[in-house]
């Protein structure tokens, strides 16, 4: 059932048919990797991502292509993208996937490929957008089809909609619809990589397909048969990574669908129930239970997962990595000495300061130490910790001999009232005259991220320890020699003993940040030789960059997924 096929039948407009989706490693035939994710941060012209999960998915695609691995990615096309606060002028403009190189998928006869799903008492049709990123194919399902009702055409309108029913249907469309699409176009993967609970229904789709083809009558037996081909990744310890719904809510959308395969609703429901409440179904619990292997995205993340959810006792750690070609500044392709690194950095910083002035009207100082805090606005990320002692912060930043400034970037999800409140409180501080050396960037996207990770002097990260699963934005900035100042969480926990890193005390984050900034960071940054070159600081930059080059590139990450999750040897499985 799950062996590799000889031909990919579906092709998009203007594209040739693909080659076989089978390949060999060490003489063993392996099938294509099917990567399921709710969001993809590939291109600013296609803003169908909310944050780090989508950006990482983009890096996965890039690395799979660079590695030459047969790889297909499945997601949804959200024509209105992700709703954020503050609202951006482009939020209400419908996105056009063709501007990012996507075309409608068509069969050999030139007919539009469509996927049909029964949802409740109706049939929902889905069209498919496809792009080929140097060998890695990306498929996006879209419910905006003429034959659908107005309600159903809006199923894939927004990423992570606030409406529960819409989000539930989205997960059915992505998981079960994604599996059906692969069958329609003749791709039979060797591995299904499901990212977070949002995608867990792909495993259900596989099991139901197995039951249909093999006359199996017991869902659990089918799950056991397909499980060896399913691996799952948890990217955060937070509950929002999946969705929780009551038994009645679950039955409303899935009971009729399951009955087509002779599956009793109760048989399915028990596979995702929460131990603490047998009336609640968790898509994340379901994901872990149906995956043959599962992983967290840093060592400490896996530890916290096992402590929080004992059922995840076999979860392994594969720490995230970042794409060097995507995030490095021009000129930082290989080994560079500290002098060249500093010169490239200064150029990037000057460009960043000029750009900030254009975007915000605030003219920052190109010679001042520049700290960047950039990520989604959420309570656990603690952006307000910067302002715990406003008098001290103002005094530190306005030091005439060692001036400093801060750039803050990020948006809040409109459905996160606490995140919106955090941003509103922070905006009040930033507008104060004494903080004219703090700039805020509201429209945080891929292009903005590239400017920030290349032009910052210091990258600040202030999460509640245990909540930041990985922290890839820090890796991207460190790849460009940007100094890290962070709570010991995510990837930073793995390099906490490296002298190049400034580690913040999780119990007194704000006070420690002020102390380190005032007594260590600023003094080293402003210590210059006769040529105005910061010898010690530049060496710290080089050491920081070397950390990422050695251990935190996407190349290493993808290789570990290949060896430990996708195609582990028998010996590796025994070790795991």
TrEMBL record:
<feature type="compositionally biased region" description="Basic and acidic residues">
    <location>
        <begin position="1"/>
        <end position="14"/>
    </location>
</feature>
<comment type="function">
    <text>Phosphorylase is an important allosteric enzyme in carbohydrate metabolism. Enzymes from different sources differ in their regulatory mechanisms and in their natural substrates. However, all known phosphorylases share catalytic and structural properties.</text>
</comment>
<protein>
    <recommendedName>
        <fullName>glycogen phosphorylase</fullName>
        <ecNumber>2.4.1.1</ecNumber>
    </recommendedName>
</protein>
<dbReference type="GO" id="GO:0005975">
    <property type="term" value="P:carbohydrate metabolic process"/>
</dbReference>
<dbReference type="InterPro" id="IPR011834">
    <property type="entry name" value="Agluc_phsphrylas"/>
</dbReference>
<dbReference type="GO" id="GO:0008184">
    <property type="term" value="F:glycogen phosphorylase activity"/>
</dbReference>
<keyword id="KW-0328">Glycosyltransferase</keyword>
<comment type="similarity">
    <text>Belongs to the glycogen phosphorylase family.</text>
</comment>
<dbReference type="InterPro" id="IPR035090">
    <property type="entry name" value="Pyridoxal_P_attach_site"/>
</dbReference>
<dbReference type="InterPro" id="IPR052182">
    <property type="entry name" value="Glycogen/Maltodextrin_Phosph"/>
</dbReference>
<dbReference type="Pfam" id="PF00343">
    <property type="entry name" value="Phosphorylase"/>
</dbReference>
<keyword id="KW-0119">Carbohydrate metabolism</keyword>
<keyword id="KW-0663">Pyridoxal phosphate</keyword>
<feature type="region of interest" description="Disordered">
    <location>
        <begin position="1"/>
        <end position="23"/>
    </location>
</feature>
<keyword id="KW-0808">Transferase</keyword>
<dbReference type="GO" id="GO:0030170">
    <property type="term" value="F:pyridoxal phosphate binding"/>
</dbReference>
<dbReference type="InterPro" id="IPR000811">
    <property type="entry name" value="Glyco_trans_35"/>
</dbReference>
């Amino acid at each position: 059932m799950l062996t590799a096929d000889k031909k990919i039948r579906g092709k998009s407009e203007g594209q040739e048919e693909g080659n076989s989706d089978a390949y060999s490693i060490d003489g063993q035939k392996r099938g294509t990797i099917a990567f399921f994710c709710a969001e993809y941060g590939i291109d600013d012209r296609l803003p169908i991502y909310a944050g780090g999960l989508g950006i990482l998915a983009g890096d996965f695609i890039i690395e799979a292509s660079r590695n030459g691995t047969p790889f297909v990615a499945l997601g949804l096309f959200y024509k209105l993208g992700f709703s954020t606060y503050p609202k951006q002028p482009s939020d209400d403009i419908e996105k056009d996937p063709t501007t990012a190189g996507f075309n409608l998928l068509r069969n050999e006869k030139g007919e539009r490929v469509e996927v049909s799903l029964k949802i409740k008492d109706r049939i929902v049709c889905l069209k498919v957008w496809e792009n080929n990123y140097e060998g890695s194919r990306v498929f996006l399902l879209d419910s905006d089809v003429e034959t659908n009702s107005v309600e159903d055409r809006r199923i894939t309108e927004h990423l992570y909609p606030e409406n529960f029913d819409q989000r539930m249907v989205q997960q059915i469309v992505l998981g079960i619809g994604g599996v059906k699409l692969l069958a329609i176009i003749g791709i039979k993967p060797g591995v299904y990589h499901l990212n977070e609970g949002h995608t867990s229904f792909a495993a259900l789709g596989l099991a139901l397909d197995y039951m249909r083809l093999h006359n199996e009558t017991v869902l659990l037996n089918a799950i056991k048969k397909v499980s060896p081909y399913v691996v799952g990744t948890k990217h955060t310890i937070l509950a929002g990574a999946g969705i929780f719904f009551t038994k009645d809510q679950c039955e409303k959308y899935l009971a009729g669908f399951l009955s087509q395969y002779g599956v009793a609703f109760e048989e399915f429901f028990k596979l995702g129930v929460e131990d603490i409440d047998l009336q609640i179904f968790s898509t994340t619990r379901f994901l872990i239970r149906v995956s043959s292997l599962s992983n967290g995205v840093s060592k400490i993340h896996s530890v916290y997962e096992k402590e929080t959810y004992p059922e995840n006792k076999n979860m392994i750690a594969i720490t995230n990595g970042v794409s060097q070609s995507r995030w490095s500044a021009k000129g930082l392709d290989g080994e560079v000495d500290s002098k060249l690194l500093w010169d490239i950095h200064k150029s990037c910083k000057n460009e960043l300061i000029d750009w900030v002035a254009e975007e915000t009207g605030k003219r920052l100082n190109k010679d001042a130490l520049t700290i960047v805090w950039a990520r989604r606005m959420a309570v656990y990320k603690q952006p307000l910790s910067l302002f715990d002692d406003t008098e001290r912060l103002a005094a530190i930043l306005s030091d005439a001999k060692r001036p400093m400034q801060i750039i803050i970037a990020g948006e809040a999800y409109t459905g996160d009232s606490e995140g919106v409140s955090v941003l509103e409180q922070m905006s009040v501080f930033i507008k104060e005259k004494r903080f004219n050396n703090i700039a805020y960037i509201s429209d945080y996207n891929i292009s903005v991220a590239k400017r920030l990770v290349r032009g910052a002097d210091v990258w600040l990260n202030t999460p509640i320890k245990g909540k930041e699963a990985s922290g890839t934005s820090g890796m991207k900035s460190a790849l460009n020699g940007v100094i890290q100042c962070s709570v010991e969480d995510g990837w930073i926990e793995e390099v906490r003993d490296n002298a190049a890193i400034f580690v913040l005390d999780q119990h007194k984050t704000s006070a420690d940040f002020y102390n380190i900034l005032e007594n260590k960071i600023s003094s080293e940054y402003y210590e210059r030789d006769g040529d105005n070159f910061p010898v010690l600081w530049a060496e710290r930059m080089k050491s920081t960059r070397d950390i990422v080059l050695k251990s935190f590139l996407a190349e290493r990450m993808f290789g570990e997924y290949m060896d430990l999750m996708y195609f582990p040897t028998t010996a590796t499985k025994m070790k795991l």
